[in-house]
Design goal:
Elements (H helix, E strand, L loop, with lengths): L10 E5 L6 H17 L4 E5 L4 H7 L4 E4 L10 H9 L8 H8 L1 H10 L7 E5 L6 H8 L5 E5 L9 E3 L5 H11 L2 E6 L4 E10 L3 E4 L3 E5 L6 H5 L4 E4 L6 H18 L3 E9 L5 E7 L9 H8 L4 H20 L5
Parallel strand pairs: 1-2, 1-3
Antiparallel strand pairs: 4-7, 5-6, 5-7, 8-9, 8-10, 8-12, 10-11, 12-13
Helix pairs in contact: 1-11
Amino acid sequence: MPIGRRTDRRIAVLMGGRSPEREISLKTGQAVHQALLRRGYDAVALDVGDRLYQDLKEQDVAIAFLSLHGPGGEDGLVQGFLETLGIPYTGSGVRASAVGMHKVMAKTLLAAHGIPVPPGTVIRRGGRSPLAKVLRESKLQLPIVVKPVSQGSTIGVTIVRRTAQWKEALAVAHRYDHEAMVERYIPGHEATVSIIGTAVGGAKVLPAIEIVAQKGFYDFSAKYQTGKTQYLCPAPLPAKVLRKIGDLAYRSYDVLGCEGAARVDFRITPRGQPYVLEINTVPGMTATSLLPMAAAQVGIEYDDLVEQILQSALDRAAQRAKPEFV
């Protein structure tokens, strides 16, 4: 995918923030910052806090490269803030970011477009929610997955296999969000498909990766501790399944109106039926992250990938420069 534009203006890599994914965000941001410097861009690294407005102004920032994960960085909040300042940024816009981060909203929209998602329900913090009633009303049965509605990196997620686990699983999910999503557990394979999109080259679907966690659950430690998970890329799944998840990933990206890089996570039944779990609109870019791994399979080195993601901000800047009325 060719790079359509370059810029001599200052780029701020926004990272850190206050979400539970702060440490991962810092690693992503530091890696991205170094890649931009290697490519000759005028780039600074900013740890996002209360002084973000002052930092952006003092550094004379013209473009933001978003390396923020989780609430405050992936949910449209910082995107909206940058919109008000007129600073172009990488990745998806306010609407796609907000919908993508809110798993229930994303699933509802995807299901309305015929994209398969696991059935489930939502439990708000503070309400009475006996397991038997939840299962009956949602037409689910154990095992089920309980997770915060708006978190990433499998934070606060529990697979409930026994009734005795229910209250604790709900409490853990509600620790991170006032809404907890309860959905059917999909047995089988776990896979992810990444997409890079630019106005110049369109959207490119990268090879799927199959994720094989040692303990069978791809939780936070399995994601970020070396050696706890096998990543098989390209995924050794039947060609028919690979075509299907590639198509579903592209459709999910399109339906939500995503831009730049995104990653769509799947569970695939033993019979080959895929279900979309979620879409990540600011995928990780650490040494063990899945987007760079998939890109490398098609010859896109890390620094090239960073530059291609930057393209989404340059495209947004070019769009702003066009006259509103012709």
